[in-house]
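Render this sequence as a predicted structure.
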Amino acid sequence: MPKYPNITVELIGIDSNAFSILGACTRAMRKAHLPQSEIDTFMQEATAGSYDDLLATCMNWFNVE
């Protein structure tokens, strides 16, 4: 179960580069009024590894479609 199951990030149909994915996730977090500290934590975790790690982080944090 994701950390924030009430936040849905739709990755289908967006550019599949890492910056587009990070942008979609941060927009969803801001829309859900998460604190900047939580956004910073997500960004640190999401950018710490490979592209596959980024996708896994997104799925661990949000409901991904």
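Summary. The beta strands are 4-9, 62-64. The mean pLDDT is 95.
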